[in-house]
Write a structure and sequence with these properties.
Length: 199
Amino acid sequence: MEEPPSYDSLFGKIAAAKVTSDGNVDFARKSIGILCGSVIATILLVLSLAVPIAAIVIGGLYLHDCPKQKYIPIYLIVFGSFSIVKALSSLVDNCRARKNEGQQDENKPKSACDGIIGCFLFAWFIAGNVWVYKTYKNFSTDESSEEYCQPTLFYFSFWLITGTYIIMGLFFLICCGCCISMLCCSAKMSAYGPAKYGV
């Protein structure tokens, strides 16, 4: 007979969330919260700072090198700056949550500042879409032309936005896979009963 999982493990925390959940929606919400607060999520968050830093550097280097659409370098600088602030805020929240693991309130709302930054970044992303996609295949690489836009600047911006859509699509597919896995896991746990997990 298999040993019940340790409640210090990620699976153990998810098993405990299943037992204490009011239904599948509550279980999914708690499971996602556990996964987002894990060490792996923190490591990915730190690694993700490379893109905003690159955006600030490229936007700053080519600040006056896109007369065709002068807002593209500004888009990169503002996007990078606010993304770093949001990532550091999330990193501090994750570290604080792990430090106070036993005492934390799972339903504690995020700070209002975090929500405002998120809304601003979403609106800024939409603005970047307009500036970048409107310029796509409609600019010159001749530096003397008024239609000029520095290619590194433009293509970095283009792939930053396009890559975001690709990641969103992959995230959606992964979420669907996770939901199916959780339902299978839930069915398996239900088959063994709560006693199997020491509850």
